[in-house]
UniProtKB/TrEMBL annotation:
GO terms for molecular function: hydrolase activity. Residues 320-505 form the Methanolan biosynthesis EpsI domain. InterPro entries: EpsH-like, Exo/Archaeosortase_dom, Exosortase, Exosortase-1, Methanolan_biosynth_EpsI. It is found in: Cell membrane. The chain crosses the membrane at residues 24-43, 55-73, 85-104, 116-144, 198-216, 223-243, 263-284, 304-333. It comes from Novosphingobium clariflavum. Its EC number is 3.4.22.-. This is Exosortase A. The gene is xrtA. NCBIfam families: 8TM_EpsH, EpsI_fam, exo_archaeo, exosort_XrtA. It comes from the Bacteria. Keywords: Cell membrane, Hydrolase, Membrane, Protease, Transmembrane, Transmembrane helix.
Length: 519
C-alpha cells in the first residue's frame, strides 16, 4: 500500500507530510537554525528580557501561540505547493537592513526586530508567495516577540497622572498635580514607570490581535475590538491609580500601596481582560467549523499565481540568503570599529560673565555617559546669584556600550535619588526635563547632542545622524552637553539661570565643538 493511501494514524510523521513539502520544510528549518546561530546574541538578549522583565513575561506565550496558529492552518497549507521565490530575497534584504540599522546605531530594538523579521522573511523566499499568504497572520504576529514598549513609558506616565488627578478631583479629594507627582492630604504620590501601565497595555494588545484574528471575520469588528484593547487598559490603569490614592486617604499610604500591588498583579489585569472578552463575546462572528484560511481561494488568486511564477532554484535562494547576511555582518562590524580621534585632555571653557565655583549640589547629581572618552562636570555662577551645573561627555564614536542617547544614559540615572517629573520649558533644539530628588529637590536639565553639523536634543535625530555616518563608514566624534540648575524656591528660577548661561555661551553646538577642541 503506497504511503498516500495509508490511514493517517498508521503513517509516520514524515510520511504524513505531502512530498512537495518535505524538502521545503527541511530547507526552512536549516535556514532558521543558521539564522538563530548567527544572531544568537540578539535572541539571547530577547529571551533574557522575556524571562527577567515583568513587562515582557507574556512574550513567553507568544512562541507557542505562533505554533498553534500554524497548526490550525496545516490542513489548508498542505493543499498548497511550496516553491523557492526570488522576490523573497527583497524581504530578506529589508529585514537584514533593519538589523544593520540597529547594529550601527546601537539601537537594540532595531537589531532585535531585524533578527525576528529575518526568520519571517525566509518563509516567502523558501516557500513562495501563496504559502506566505496562508501564513500571513502568524508571520505578522511574530513581531510581538520583539520586546518593545519602553518608549511609551513617559507618555503613559503623563496620561495616567492626568486621568488619576481628574478622578481624584471628581471624588472630592483635593489634589495638586506636578508632572507625574500628585500631592494629596494623605501624601505625595508618584506615577512611576512601574505604574505607567505599559506592561498591561502591551499584553492586552497582544491578546487583542490574537482574538481579532481568531474570533472575528469582519474587519470593522476587528478594529473596534483592537481599539478597546488599547483604550480600556489605559483608562483602567488610571482608575487603578486613583483607587490607590483614594484608599490612602482613609487607610494610609503604606496599606493602600501594598494592597494595590497585590490587586494589580493578580486580580486587576484578569478582571479587565474578562470585561473586554465579555464585551466582545456577542460580536464574535467566526463560525467554529470554518478553517482559518481558504487554500482554494489562495491558489485561485490570479495575483498570487502571477507572483508565484518568479521562482528560483533552491541553491540560488540559499546562496542569496547567505550573501545578504554576510554583507550586513561585514558592514556592521566595520561600522562598529569606527572611532574618531579625540584630544588627550579637555576642560570646560571660560564663559563671559560667569566663573567656576565648587560643585556642591543639594542631592548628588552626576549624569551617566557610558563609553565616553572624556567626561566633565562643573558649576558656573554669575554675580547675580545664578548658578548652573554643566555636564559634558565626548565620545570617539557611537555603538554598543557607548550610546549618548541610550537607555539609562544622560540626566536621569537609574537607581539614583532622582525621578522624572515631567517635561521642562522649551529650549531651542534641546530636550528639557524636570527631575525630582528624594521627593524634595527640583532640578531642570536641558540636554543637547552634537555629531558633525547636527545639534539636537532628540535621541531619534541623533540616531539618524549616527546611522548616516555609519552607513557611509564615516568616523565622527559625538558630544553630549547637559546644562542643569536646581529650582530655587526663593532665589532665581532654574530656567532663568540656564537661559542667561546660554546667552553668554552662544550656540550650544559651537560651544560643544570648542570644548572638544574641534574649532
Amino acid at each position: 500500500m503506497p504511503p498516500e493511501s495509508m490511514p493517517l494514524e498508521n503513517r509516520s510523521f514524515l510520511q504524513a507530510i505531502p512530498a512537495p513539502w518535505r524538502k521545503a520544510l527541511l530547507r526552512l528549518a536549516a535556514s532558521w537554525l543558521a539564522l538563530l546561530a548567527v544572531f544568537h546574541a540578539d535572541w539571547t538578549a530577547m529571551a533574557r528580557q522575556w524571562w527577567e522583565i515583568s513587562t515582557y513575561n507574556h512574550v513567553l506565550l507568544i512562541l507557542p501561540i505562533i505554533g498553534w496558529l500554524v497548526w490550525q492552518r496545516r490542513g489548508e497549507l498542505a493543499l498548497l505547493t511550496p516553491s523557492c521565490w526570488w522576490p523573497g530575497l527583497l524581504f530578506v534584504a529589508g529585514a537584514a537592513f533593519v538589523w544593520l540599522l540597529g547594529g550601527i546605531s546601537g539601537l537594540d530594538l532595531a537589531r532585535q526586530a531585524g533578527a525576528v523579521a529575518l526568520l519571517g522573511a525566509v518563509v516567502p523566499l523558501l516557500l513562495g508567495p501563496q504559502v506566505m499568504a496562508g501564513l500571513l497572520f502568524p508571520l505578522c504576529y511574530m513581531a510581538l516577540l520583539v520586546p518593545f514598549g519602553e518608549e511609551l513609558v513617559e507618555v503613559l506616565q503623563t496620561v495616567t497622572a492626568k486621568i488619576t488627578v481628574a478622578l481624584t478631583h471628581f471624588s472630592g479629594v483635593p489634589a495638586q498635580i506636578d508632572g507625574v507627582f500628585i500631592d494629596t492630604p494623605a501624601g505625595l504620590f508618584e506615577v512611576a514607570e512601574a505604574c505607567s501601565g505599559v506592561k498591561f497595555l502591551i499584553a492586552m494588545f497582544a491578546f487583542g490581535a490574537l482574538a481579532a484574528n481568531v474570533c472575528f471575520v469582519r474587519w470593522r469588528r476587528r478594529l473596534v475590538f483592537m481599539a478597546a484593547c488599547i483604550v480600556v487598559p489605559i483608562l483602567a490603569n488610571g482608575a487603578r491609580a486613583w483607587g490607590t490614592i483614594y484608599a490612602a486617604q482613609f487607610v494610609g499610604v503604606q496599606k493602600a500601596a501594598g494592597f494595590d500591588h497585590i490587586v494589580y498583579g493578580w486580580i486587576f489585569f484578569a478582571l479587565v481582560l474578562a470585561a473586554v472578552i465579555a464585551g466582545g463575546w456577542r460580536f464574535f462572528d467566526r463560525p467554529l467549523d470554518v478553517p482559518m484560511i481558504d487554500a482554494a481561494r489562495i491558489a485561485a488568486s490570479p495575483f498570487l499565481s502571477r507572483m508565484a511564477t518568479a521562482t528560483i532554484a533552491a541553491t540560488g535562494a540559499l546562496l542569496g540568503l547567505a550573501a545578504l547576511i554576510g554583507a550586513v555582518l561585514w558592514w556592521a562590524v566595520t561600522a562598529e570599529r569606527l572611532a574618531a580621534p579625540l584630544p588627550a585632555a579637555i576642560d570646560l571653557p571660560e564663559v563671559p560673565g560667569w566663573h567656576r565655583v565648587d560643585y556642591a549640589p543639594t542631592i548628588w547629581w552626576e549624569p551617566r555617559a557610558g563609553g565616553a572618552g572624556h567626561r566633565l562636570l562643573g558649576r558656573y555662577a554669575d554675580e547675580s546669584g545664578h548658578a548652573v551645573d554643566v555636564f559634558y561627555a565626548l565620545y570617539a564614536g557611537q555603538g554598543e556600550g557607548r550610546e549618548a542617547g541610550g537607555f539609562g544614559e544622560g540626566a536621569l540615572m537609574p537607581s539614583s535619588p532622582w525621578a522624572w517629573q515631567g517635561k521642562g520649558p522649551d529650549f531651542a533644539d534641546a530636550r528639557s526635563e524636570r527631575l525630582l530628588g528624594h521627593g524634595e529637590v527640583e532640578r531642570l536639565a536641558v540636554t543637547w547632542y552634537r555629531t558633525g553639523p547636527v545639534t539636537t536634543g532628540s535621541n531619534s535625530r541623533l540616531k539618524l545622524a549616527v546611522i548616516a555616518d555609519h552607513l557611509l563608514l564615516r568616523a565622527r566624534p559625538t558630544a553630549m552637553l547637559i546644562v542643569s540648575a536646581e529650582e530655587g524656591h526663593h532665589g532665581p528660577r532654574a530656567a532663568d539661570a540656564i537661559g542667561r548661561f546660554l546667552a553668554a555661551t552662544g550656540s550650544p553646538g559651537r560651544w560643544m565643538d570648542r570644548t572638544a577642541k574641534l574649532r
